[in-house]
Amino acid sequence: MTAAMRADAPATDGLDEAARARILAKAALFAPPSNELADGRRDLVGLSREELAAAMAEIGEQPFRAKQLWHWIYHQGVTDFAAMANIAKPLRAKLAERFAIGRPEVAADHLSADETRKMLFRFRDHEAVETVYIPDVTEDRGAVCLSSQVGCTLSCRFCHTGTQRLTRNLSAAEIVGQFMAMRDAYGEWPSPKGETPRLLSTIVLMGMGEPLYNYENVAKAMKIVMDGEGIGLSRRRITLSTSGVVPMMDRAGAELGVNLAVSLHAVTDDVRDVIVPLNRKYNIAELIAACRRYPGASNARRITFEYVMLKGINDSEADARRLVELIDGIPAKVNLIPFNPWPGSTYETSSGNAIRRFANIVMDAGYAAPVRTPRGQDILAACGQLKSKVAGAA
Ligand code: SAH
Ligand code: SF4
Predict the structure, then answer these.
(1) 40-98 belongs to which CATH class?
(2) d(C-alpha 102, C-alpha 225), whole Å
(3) Which residues bind [4Fe-4S] cluster (predicted)?
(4) pLDDT at 306 (0 to 100)
(5) 393 burial level (CB within 10 Å; 0-12, 13-18, 19+)
(6) Which CATH superfamily is domain 103-377 in?
(7) pLDDT in the model for residue 374
(8) Ligand 1, residues 130, 154, 206: which to mutate, most atoms within 8 A of Cβ?
């Protein structure tokens, strides 16, 4: 398809359906390993409620057992069947013979001077990802930044993760497992109820990988996280960041209804084609149209446009003016992210003045334009610095 055709052709439902099917088929090629351990037991983490009930039926147990297990796993956070007080001992033993309640292994744990914490989590096949906890500096709350893939196919030019080839997608268990293991580190079990303050109070899908290229596992994990009888984090406390996988944006909005963040980073296709190569497939006009369609966007639930500030590339006053024209009418805020360097990166971050000028133009147009303070830079935990393999390593 030529660029001109691409820009003019409004995606009909039929076309979108075909595009979605292609994206899901590609995701399946990078499927995670099964939930079976080396000793034949199966990990219960990551199963949907229905799958958990089916697992109980398979061993001849009643459906209410699944409800009990769900509570122990996601509300109490236990990893040992022996702790399940309302289940009789013989059944606990039977469960322990067949199943496990897994966590990723903590392969590294770094604490930044600003309290940001980065963990390297290793999974059963020895693949690993990084997960970051970013505590609020003034209040007892904070965001957990989850990874969705080992590596990324998209190679955005300013992103460290983009230099790590995609090895595979993460399973729902591995996505929810990052959050649960991070909660273990802070002892935040049982899951706080309702509006009780939480240290780990929000989830941002902004770690390694493109979540909409691993949609099914991400969606399954988020449904587990949002379940009110378990972790119980509301969709308002979850933000999914995408570099612009347009056909999947509608589906995520309709099915999950989580907050959306869009990695815009440039306001002309010429620039975006280079720094976010996915733009050659879904250009700015298509991306903005998908944002306008995103269900649930309102003043209370604004779309976040992420904009990495790259000196001399995308940070002029003309760029800022073009940005506000592009997003005109969308309930939105613009998150300005000073570029975080990483070993081998070639860009420079914009000057403080350039960022202020840019922010002022956006704010004058009526949009919030917070400048994201880099967190955890000393441990390479800031946006775009994550990578779980070093060059040359297997
Ligand atoms: N793949 C998804 C989510 C992960 S990246 C996405 O691209 O949206 C989270 C955010 O950090 C994105 O907006 C990403 O573009 C931005 N980012 C990547 N590299 C960066 C860097 N070196 N400095 C600052 N932000 C960066
Ligand atoms: Fe992948 Fe996001 Fe990094 Fe782009 S910015 S390479 S989509 S992780």
Answers:
(1) mainly alpha
(2) 16
(3) 152, 156, 159
(4) 98
(5) exposed
(6) Aldolase class I (3.20.20.70)
(7) 86
(8) 206
